[in-house]
Q: What sequence folds into this?
């Protein structure tokens, strides 16, 4: 008899956690949109912790929780805390959507910004090249956003003093 009760209760507990997770994410997004910073970290950490417990490691909602917490850290200029969360989110999104999906762009752009701020040009390059592929496919070859990423990539090659990579960018 107890076994049957347990089977009935477990789905209800999981459903309550899912509702709490979704509500926490809604609160985080609302507070971010309002420019609030104070309580966001606690809400975002709680949502991430719940997601880790109840969702599959490649669930898009888990990736969203990682992005939300990373965005908080980014807004606080705590880039070293944001970077691993963005990197983990990218892996999840790529496994679900493929490496050329436009939804990857915002997270890739954050990783580019992080590596630029650290002057880590070698680490920045693959993210820029991935952004070029995504934006060229999604926006077309003459879109200003694509031109901006190409210019950033050319600047990285210039800073790396790598004329062999820079030359094709100038053609």
A:
């Amino acid at each position: 008899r107890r076994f049957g009760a347990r089977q009935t209760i477990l789905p209800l507990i999981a459903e309550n956690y899912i509702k709490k997770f979704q509500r926490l994410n809604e609160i985080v997004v609302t507070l971010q949109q309002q420019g609030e910073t104070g309580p966001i970290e606690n809400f975002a950490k709680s949502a991430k912790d719940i997601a880790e417990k109840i969702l599959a490691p490649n669930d898009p909602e888990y990736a969203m929780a990682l992005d939300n917490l990373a965005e908080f850290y980014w807004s606080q200029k705590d880039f070293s805390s944001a970077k691993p969360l963005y990197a983990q989110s990218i892996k999840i999104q790529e496994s679900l959507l493929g490496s050329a999906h436009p939804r990857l762009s915002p997270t890739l752009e954050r990783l580019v910004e992080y590596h630029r701020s650290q002057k880590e040009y070698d680490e920045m390059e693959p993210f820029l090249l991935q952004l070029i592929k995504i934006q060229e496919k999604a926006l077309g070859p003459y879109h200003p956003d694509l031109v901006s990423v190409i210019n950033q990539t050319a600047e990285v090659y210039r800073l790396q003093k790598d004329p062999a990579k820079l030359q094709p960018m100038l053609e």
